[in-house]
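Incident log, support desk, overnight shift.

02:14 A customer reports that sequence design results differ from what the structure should imply. Their input is reproduced verbatim below. On-call engineer (initials T.W.) acknowledged and began investigating.
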């Protein structure tokens, strides 16, 4: 029997040496039940319903930590700021991000494999590569809006 997504997240935390607290268990449930992108403020609002004394700083710290160990993916949306989502892939990948609907598509190509010019005395620890554009659905919607007749003012 396969472990539940929440248990997979908690197991990953445990393997990295993190204590599984009730707050972290609730955090895993929040991300897996929502399934979408959550800003730190969104997470704070959801978590504070269960833990009224939790601070926004604690939320940020946990989100960054869970992102660093690969449990959450961190995205920077051009208009929406920093958001997090449960990581669905367990290998190195990058993203195409729709600027309209925030849909993301993962892809495995890594530009770091072909990047030159990094000084020898600089050790790369981590990197992100995100490409912004419009998904097919939003492109079609945009085309429909361009071709639809304009309503006259009444």
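02:41 Re-run completed on a clean worker. Output:
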């Amino acid at each position: 029997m396969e472990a539940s997504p929440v248990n997979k997240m908690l197991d990953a935390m445990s393997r990295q040496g993190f204590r599984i607290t009730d707050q972290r268990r609730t955090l895993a449930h929040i991300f897996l039940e929502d399934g979408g992108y959550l800003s730190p403020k969104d997470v704070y609002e959801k978590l504070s319903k269960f833990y009224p004394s939790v601070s926004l700083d604690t939320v940020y710290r946990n989100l960054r930590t869970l992102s660093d160990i690969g449990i959450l993916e961190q995205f920077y949306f051009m208009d929406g700021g920093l958001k997090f989502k449960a990581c669905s892939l367990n290998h190195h990948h990058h993203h195409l991000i729709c600027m309209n609907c925030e849909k993301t598509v993962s892809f495995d190509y890594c530009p770091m494999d072909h990047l030159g010019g990094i000084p020898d005395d600089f050790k790369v620890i981590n990197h992100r590569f995100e490409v912004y554009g419009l998904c097919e659905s939003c492109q079609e919607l945009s085309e429909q809006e361009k071709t639809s007749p304009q309503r006259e003012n009444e």
